[in-house]
């Protein structure tokens, strides 16, 4: 099913994306592709200590080097107060963002920026960094989440008081907050269970791994206005953060969205951007800053490493009576791990009476954790969906059947509060059962696993403008960076509403001065929220086209209907008129009221929750411990697939990232607190030869809150794979892998333990 | 620092540039010649975003020096289309949605072209291993591999 053949002319068509040609010819401009005359090169100096007090920074020698135009440290940034910032799914604090961008008083992780320079060439900038003298007092550090939670652990932030507990603790600790979600009474629920399975899981931080490193160009004019070109998941977010961190008016900053080379949540915050703005303001020259891959690994976003315990009880017949999870997530050096989202999503696919999830957000001397695709959810699902499989085995019930018996449906009260409207979880389970993959034979040392995943999906603020050109072509201006083909879906929706050929619709991403505020691209919101804005703006155009036609025909606007790209009389009572096409009306616009332009600025509500279920086959080499994924199928409810090929792409890409997370990827730190694998050779992401084709099935249970039924699709696909792979490995070799990654040494150790 | 004068051929046309001895070919292409289609993802030869064809062989421009271009012939993504006509690989990448963010795309296209130039009839496994030096974080490779196989089939006629 992919939405084709229904009543739609464009929705569900696999059109070529409007930005496509530029991307296959090398013409598309990404963050680092932009240059200006007289541009300086900006570079940062990073701490190599995981935890150290900055006693002094002497920048004199660096300043004196010919070609160096500015050197900045935290002393050059305002010391801003705490203030909640809403970039992504989880709030953060502008003060922490500021301290993360440039260390103040203490360096909190290997890779933390302590100073920055702008110079006339890269080699001079590099030389200048070497001339900056930082006097550190090295402090004891803590990397491990459980160590960090212990009393007496080195304090990462000396004034951090645990939130979410009463009474409020008097002493600081590394526990930033405790969260809890309750439904029913788990104690009573476990008493009713015939079987209870409990297990502890651990995972390592992994990086989003976007191939484009962070890059920015900032240019300031004499009147104090700064233009910024950068790739990010939200140019309005970049503007807000730079303004707040530097004490500027928002209107002093104009941020131009470059094409973005992947983000997956890792580009919903600022790193270099405020520094580039400040350096350009200090020097009066354009400044370009680009991270190296090593800097990306050491200085930007991994997601949390975790320690998790999950306990699930069920009756003999497989009715789940209670489920509990305790999740401790590393936040990195500043609060804000996605543990709350982990708690909310852990058991969300199931209709349960008794649920308790407790989460701890814990700071450690690692880079500040940043969102990574369905932040927090894949981890919690890894634990929950692994325990479910164990429980099914213990009860001698097919794992798929256990899920079917307990599946959430319309009306189910989610463990985190709301009642679900129409959802498609059961449909994904049915599609798995019906798929030939599910019953295909397996060979020796091979195993099959299934797992499900949930993401609530987000809406939010979104703006769109639809301008009708004088020849009847249309420009759709959007406010969210297009990270994976959203311009294609927006064009389809606009063409559908206007009833014109897709070739006549040109979608572009506006900059912060040309389109209304729009939230970040994240939370799987764009096709949903931006789509709603586009539909509304295109509807506004249709209303104007009807009014203009009414003027021409000298009838009431209600007497004109819009069908298939033409104005028609609503009935014969209105009169006999030849249909007018959009192009015909556009050509006359000047004489009948002026330009035709539709707009919408909305706060989209009612994002439909998304569910997916994956099937994974693996083969385990008992000699080397290597796990190979042989076959993979991802099933997901997309509500309505606007552009099915890009929905499939999301499913495939999310699955591949999840497989990498399950099998290989991890941040490796030495006892010295330094990252040992800050490169693609040692931080091994899946390559083409590691993976099979990834089959997809799109289920469509429309979201009633969207004009075309769209649900977000981008995040769900990374939720099931961790457990799907682990369940497959268990079925292949009879060993439950509770610690990620399931890399060859870990598999071999587990096999040895078993023997 | 004294700069070196280099004469080379880029996308079939003679080109000259000045570069520092330690400057990589990738930096020269991007910063000196404004050919920014070749991307930098790692600078260590691990992602393939900078892939170019040098005297018929695919190479990581981040691992070559600008001075090594002397007397050689370099093909970059900018030279892949013939005028307005896209190379079948480019067209099929579009038609089969083999890109999401598109950052890895130039490198994949260049590497895939080098493959099809030498082996017009690769198997899926051959495509996967040939492209194992190119990282894509968005697509899971499925549509990329399919597009390369489709292009190969089309080019064989
Ligand atoms: S930039 Fe050359 S291989 Fe990554
Ligand atoms: S399409 Fe984004 S890295 Fe390949």
Q: Can you describe this structure?
A:
The complex is a heterodimer of chains A (755) and B (157). Chain A is globular. Chain A has three domains: 20-27 and 459-603, 2-Layer Sandwich (Aldehyde Oxidoreductase, domain 4), CATH 3.30.365.10; 34-139 and 211-262 and 267-299, Aldehyde oxidase/xanthine dehydrogenase, a/b hammerhead (Aldehyde Oxidoreductase, domain 3, Alpha-Beta Complex); 302-457 and 608-754, 2-Layer Sandwich (Aldehyde Oxidoreductase, domain 4), CATH 3.30.365. In chain A, strand 20 (474-478), helix 15 and strand 21 (505-509) form a beta-alpha-beta unit. Chain A is α+β, with helices and mostly antiparallel strands and 755 residues long. In chain A, the strands form seven sheets. Chain A has a seven-stranded mixed sheet, sandwiched between helices. In chain A, helix 11 (377-395) crosses helix 12 (399-406), helix 11 runs parallel beside helix 19 (721-733) and helix 15 packs parallel to helix 16. Chain B has 157 residues and is of the alpha+beta class. Chain B has two domains: 4-79, Ubiquitin-like (UB roll) (Roll); 88-156, Orthogonal Bundle (DNA polymerase, domain 1), CATH 1.10.150.120. In chain B, strands 2-1-5-3-4 form a five-stranded mixed sheet, with helices on both faces. In chain B, strand 1 and strand 2 (13-19) form a beta hairpin. In chain B, helix 2 (88-95) crosses helix 5 (142-156). Chain B is globular. At the A-B interface, helix 1 and helix 18 of A face helix 2, helix 3, helix 4 and helix 5 of B. The structure holds FE2/S2 (inorganic) cluster (2 copies). One FE2/S2 (inorganic) cluster binds next to loops of chain B.
């Amino acid at each position: 099913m992919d939405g084709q053949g229904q009543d739609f002319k464009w929705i569900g068509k696999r059109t070529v994306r409007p930005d496509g040609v530029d991307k296959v010819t090398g013409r598309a401009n990404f963050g680092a592709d932009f240059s200006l005359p007289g541009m300086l090169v900006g570079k940062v100096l990073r701490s190599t200590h995981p935890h150290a007090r900055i006693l002094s920074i002497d920048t004199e020698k660096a300043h004196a080097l010919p070609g160096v135009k500015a050197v900045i440290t935290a002393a050059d940034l305002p010391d801003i107060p705490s203030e909640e910032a809403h970039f992504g799914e989880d709030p953060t604090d502008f003060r922490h963002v500021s301290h993360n961008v440039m260390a103040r008083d203490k360096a909190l992780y290997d890779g933390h920026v302590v100073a920055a320079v702008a110079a006339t060439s890269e080699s001079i900038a590099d030389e200048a960094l070497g001339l900056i003298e930082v006097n550190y007092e090295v402090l004891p550090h803590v990397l491990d989440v459980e160590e960090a939670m212990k009393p007496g652990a080195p304090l990462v932030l000396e004034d951090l008081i645990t939130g979410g507990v009463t009474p409020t603790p008097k002493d600081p600790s590394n526990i930033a907050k405790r969260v809890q979600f309750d439904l029913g009474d788990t104690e009573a629920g476990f008493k009713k269970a015939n079987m209870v399975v409990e297990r502890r899981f651990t995972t390592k931080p992994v990086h989003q791994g976007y191939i484009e490193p962070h890059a920015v160009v900032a240019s300031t004019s004499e009147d104090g206005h700064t233009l910024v070109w950068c790739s990010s998941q939200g140019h309005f977010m970049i503007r807000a953060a730079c303004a707040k961190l530097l004490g500027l008016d928002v209107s002093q900053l104009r941020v131009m969205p470059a094409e973005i080379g992947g983000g997956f949540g890792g580009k919903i915050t600022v790193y270099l951007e405020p520094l580039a703005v400040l350096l350009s303001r200090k020097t009066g020259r354009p400044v370009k800053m680009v991270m190296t891959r090593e800097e990306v690994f050491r200085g930007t976003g991994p997601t949390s490493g975790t320690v998790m315990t999950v306990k699930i009880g069920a009756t003999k017949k497989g009715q789940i009576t209670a489920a509990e999870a305790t999740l401790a997530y590393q936040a990195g050096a500043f609060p804000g791990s996605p543990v709350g989202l982990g708690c909310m999503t852990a058991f969300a696919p199931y209709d349960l009476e008794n649920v308790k999830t407790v989460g701890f957000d814990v700071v450690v001397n690692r880079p500040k954790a940043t969102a990574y695709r369905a932040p927090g959810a894949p981890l919690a699902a890894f634990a929950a969906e692994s325990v479910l499989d164990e429980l099914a085995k213990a009860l001698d019930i097919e794992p798929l059947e256990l899920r079917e018996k307990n599946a959430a449906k319309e009306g189910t009260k989610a463990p985190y509060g709301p009642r679900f409207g129409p959802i498609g979880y059961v449909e994904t389970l049915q599609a798995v059962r019906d798929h030939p993959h599910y019953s295909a034979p397996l060979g020796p040392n091979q195993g099959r696993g299934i797992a499900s995943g949930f993401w609530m999906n987000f809406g939010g603020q979104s703006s769109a403008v639809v301008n009708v050109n004088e020849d009847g072509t249309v420009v759709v201006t959007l406010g969210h960076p297009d990270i994976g083909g959203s311009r294609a879906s927006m064009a389809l929706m606009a063409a559908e509403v206007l009833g014109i050929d897709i070739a006549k619709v040109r979608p572009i991403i506006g900059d912060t001065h040309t389109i209304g505020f729009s939230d970040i691209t994240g939370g799987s919101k764009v096709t949903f929220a931006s789509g709603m804005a586009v539909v509304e703006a295109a509807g506004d155009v249709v209303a104007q086209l009807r009014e203009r036609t009414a003027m021409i025909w000298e009838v009431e606007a209600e007497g004109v209907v819009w069908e298939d790209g033409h104005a028609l009389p609503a009935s014969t009572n209105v009169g006999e008129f030849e249909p007018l096409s959009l192009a015909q009306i556009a050509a006359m616009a000047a004489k009948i009221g002026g330009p035709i332009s539709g707009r919408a600025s909305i706060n989209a509500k009612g994002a439909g929750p998304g569910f997916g279920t994956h099937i994974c086959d693996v083969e385990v080499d008992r000699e080397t411990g290597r796990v190979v994924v042989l076959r993979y199928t991802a099933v997901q409810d997309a509500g309505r697939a606007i552009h099915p090929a890009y929905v499939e792409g999301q499913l495939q890409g999310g699955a591949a990232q999840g497989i990498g997370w399950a099998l290989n990827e991890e941040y490796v730190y030495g006892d010295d607190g330094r990252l040992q694998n800050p490169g693609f050779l040692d931080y091994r992401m899946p390559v083409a030869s590691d993976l099979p084709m990834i089959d997809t099935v799109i289920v469509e249970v429309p979201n009633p809150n969207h004009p075309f039924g769209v649900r977000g699709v981008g995040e769900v696909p990374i939720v099931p794979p961790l457990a799907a792979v682990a369940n497959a490995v268990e079925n292949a070799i009879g060993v439950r892998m509770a610690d990620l990654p399931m890399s060859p040494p870990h598999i071999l150790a587990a096999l040895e333990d078993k023997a | 620092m004294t700069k070196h004068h280099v004469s080379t051929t880029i996308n079939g046309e003679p080109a000259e540039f000045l570069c520092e001895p330690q400057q990589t070919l990738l930096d020269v292409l991007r910063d000196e010649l404004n050919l920014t289609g070749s991307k930098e993802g790692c600078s260590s030869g691990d992602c393939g975003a900078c892939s170019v064809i040098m005297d018929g062989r695919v190479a990581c421009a981040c691992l070559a020096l600008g001075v090594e271009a002397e007397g050689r012939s370099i093909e970059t993504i900018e030279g892949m289309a013939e005028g307005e006509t896209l190379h079948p690989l480019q067209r099929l990448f579009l038609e089969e949605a083999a890109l999401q963010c598109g950052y890895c795309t130039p490198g994949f296209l260049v590497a895939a072209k080098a493959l099809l130039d030498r082996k017009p009839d690769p198997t899926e496994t051959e495509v996967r291993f040939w492209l194992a030096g190119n990282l894509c974080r968005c697509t899971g490779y499925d549509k990329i591999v399919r597009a390369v196989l489709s292009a190969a089939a089309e080019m064989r006629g």
